[in-house]
Amino acid sequence: MDKKLKLCSGKDVVQRFQRAGWSAVRQKGSHVMMTKSGYHWTLSIPQHNELGHGLLRKLIRQAGLTIEEFNKL
Length: 73
Known about the structure:
The protein has 73 residues and is an alpha+beta fold. It is 36% helix and 21% strand. The protein is built from three helices and three strands. The relative contact order is 0.27.
């Protein structure tokens, strides 16, 4: 079983992904779009006070990170 996923806000998620090398390229409404060279995905991160577990897991998987790596960022 994997480690506990720490819930965080959309702003915190953007900051963590930036530490992992992702760049915020634009914002449309309440969503920040992030890209990283060499990756197929564009991450769309809603700027809510708290992101749900399912969405957070999906974003982490698309970013090529593990939950443990994400929690350390």
